[in-house]
Amino acid sequence: MSDNEGFAKPWLEFEEEVGGRLLLHGSISEILAGYEKVGVTLASTLTFPTPDQSVTTKDLTIRPGLKVRIYTPQCYEGEKPVCVFYHGGGWAMGDLEGEDIQVRTVCRDAGIVIVSVNYRLAPQHPYPAPFDDCIFAYDWAIENATMLNTAPGAALTFGTSAGGNLALSVALKVIDEGRGQTLRGVVAVVPVTVAPDSVPEKWRGSYTSYEEHAEHTINTQSAMKSFLDAYGGRGDDPYVSPLLHKRLKDIPRVYLAVAGQDTLRDDGRLLRRALDDAGQYPGYPHWFWAFPSKHLTEPIAAYDRNLKRGFDFVASKSEARGKIRVSMI
Fold first, then answer.
1. Which of 55, 166, 320, 328 falls between 20 and 30 A from 249, CA-CA?
2. Average pLDDT rounded to a whole number, residues 130-139
3. Is 87 a catalytic residue?
4. Is 285 inside any structural domain?
């Protein structure tokens, strides 16, 4: 496969705009240094939107060392399920600021209260510490429905990349503990669903994106290995690899977004296969929606529209609309 084969034209134009393909490699410390350089490059070439001030925020410490940010839309009607958000970053990067603009957009467009979780990061705090923080935050959001003005006993989880992994795993933990009645569903955007060395035998022939897109996306094959090693959980642990969980189909609803040029493409495809549906964003790599380039205006707008519809789908009480939806453009 050539370096540019399969990429959408707008993405290739964006790469030219920023001076080349954005890739991360090496150890966690090298990835962090590389990410900082990427940030400098993007800041010098792109104009990032200002935070939507129609959304109000409040930061709270819900237990020592664990902070959350509560997002409330301007015209909030109340009594909707609370959304608990887990940021991406390979379980080793990210904070409340990194995806603040996207969370504000979702909060406004979906008209839903979001609790964003600043969970502990690997490798300083390996698995299960980040996962434990995420479960605690879910329980806190359920217990504080009155303060949040959300529907009693109702929540959905939302995450991107490693955060999508956490969103799925928290949902499964809640189900395992007999509290599944509180869960409306999961919104998982380009999620990690399985450790590569733990892909079930029957699907190994379909799990090729780590090799195909090893150098096509910011989360390169070597970066993903570093992230998984830093996280530290066993690949056959169903809370590390939620694809392996025996109760995956007990999640009430799943909205899934998959990027076609991503090392994690087949993580999403296999999850879709396990939940019986199909679809992806063809021609775009990991995190494509986060780059506010003029060349990406149309695909980002489509992503935002689909994400809003996904939230409407997952938050709905209706039983007649299916179990899974997957983004396609």
1. 328
2. 99
3. no
4. yes
Specify whether the CB–CB gap between 99 and 297 falls below 8 A.
Answer: no
SS3 sequence, 257-271?
A: ECECCCCCHHHHHHH
Among the listed residues 125, 286, 293, 295, the single catalytic one is 286
Is 258 within a domain?
yes
Q: Pick the catalytic residue from 100, 139, 262, 267.
A: 262
Other C-beta atoms lying within 10 Å of the C-beta of residue 222: 18
Distance CA 211, CA 92 (A): 23
The CATH number covering residue 202 comes to 3.40.50.1820
- Please enumerate in sequence order all residues whose Cβ is within 8 A of that of 317, keeping only pairs 6 or more positions apart, or say none: 184
Is 265 domain-assigned? yes
| Domain encompassing residue 205 | 9-326
161 catalytic per annotation: yes
What's the pTM value of the predicted model, to 2 decimals? 0.87
Instruction: Look at the chain and report how many structural domains it folds into.
Output: 1
Does residue 32 surpass a pLDDT of 70? Answer: yes
| Active-site choice (87, 116, 161, 241) | 161
123 prior amide bond cis, ω within 30: yes
The span from the CA of 152 to the CA of 80, in Å, is: 9
In a domain, 1, yes or no: no
pLDDT digits (tens, 9 = 90+) for 70-96: 999 998 888 899 999 999 999 999 999
